Amino acid sequence: MKRLLIPALLFLAACGAPKSASLDVGGAKLRVTGPYAHENLAVYLIHSDARDDRDYVTLDEALKSRQVEVTEKAQEQVNELTLENKGDRPVFVQEGDRVIGGKQDRIIGLSFVVPPKSGKMPVPSFCVESGRWAGAQMFFSAGVTNAFASKEVREAAKFGKNQGEVWEQVARAKGEATRALQTPNTNSSLNETLESEKARKLCEAYAAAFAGLLPKHPDAVGAAIVLNGRIEEVNVYPGHPLLAKVFPRLVQSYALAAIAKKEGPAAPAAGDVARFMQEGQVRNRRSEKVAGGNDLDVMDCDKQLRCETRYGGQVVHAQWMNRGEASAPRGDERRNRGQNEQPQQQQEQQPPKRD
């Protein structure tokens, strides 16, 4: 897939609201279809004639098969872990991948690919379990529930790069889940909620509701998620095989929010999703390198956030996210608190320095 930064919109001619809309994205021709709805959650598929069938392993698969090890660093840090891919296949990691264990539970903060036989490399992480910095176990495992962290938690980590906001969004998600589903809320860990039996069954039910969709659309390479009529995010991947692995986990990441609030306008037309992908001007941009061969561009586009990850010069993840509170500035103090100045709660959690 070619570079996906500034898409131009081309609508298919139709009377009334179109059921599909086409996009020319940096030379790649895409098509949006939908909505495909389950109650108040709707998805739209992004189609492409281009094929990229590289056999990526996802992080949760790799952890469960022990192809990958994720550990605390020798000099432990809240916002950085060590990852090693011992296998022969590249591993795709998406922001919001949850890892359990170590000194405290974390999520991965960015999307990237880990090459085969990578050796140990640092990867960005965010704590989703404030208050704990203990435990003899240095290793991390995948959860039983396959869901990514919620969109708000991922937004705070990836776009806001704000540990304090990540904790706020974790606390909010736990509270909403407890009120809507009576999930346990006895500690600060997001995983207590998502790994509970009630949450797991709910996530599996939402994934099952869309399970028959992708096999009918083998040219689908991405998906948009709409909750209560609001476009939340769009994710585009190199090919159908990777989408098929990630799609159920994206759907599951919205299951708790879907039952917490069931009101809003009807799902928009496919053309509205296509328009969302080309709205806004890039106001700010930051570039990062991660896990060796990955280059990321993270962009602030007014009401919308965008990110593009390139591995070996090719796009492996393009994302459009509707801005929420998790990345919105809240006054000069919030705006000026950069990554180099950590929230007080995080400072208290940092492990003691060693000589």
Description:
This protein is an alpha+beta fold. The protein has a domain of 147 residues. It has a 10-stranded antiparallel sheet with strand order 1-2-3-4-14-15-19-18-17-16, sandwiched between helices. Strands 6-7-12-10-9-13 form a 6-stranded antiparallel sheet. The chain has a 3-stranded mixed sheet with strand order 5-8-11. Strand 16 and strand 17 form a beta hairpin. Helix 2 packs antiparallel against helix 3 and helix 5 crosses helix 6. It starts with 7 loop residues before the first strand and ends in a 6-residue tail after the last helix. The N terminus and C terminus are likely disordered.
Please describe the structure with a list of short key phrases separated by commas or semicolons:
single chain, 355 residues, alpha+beta, ten-stranded antiparallel beta sheet, six-stranded antiparallel beta sheet, 10 helices, 19 strands, 25% helix, globular, disordered N terminus, disordered C terminus
What's this model, at a glance?
This protein is an alpha+beta fold. 25% of the residues lie in helices and 33% in strands.
Q: Strand pairing plus helix content: what structural class?
A: alpha+beta
- Report the end-to-end length measured between terminal Cα atoms: 48 Å
Strand content: 25-35%
Largest β sheet strand count, sense and barrel closure = 10 strands, antiparallel
Helix content: 25-40%
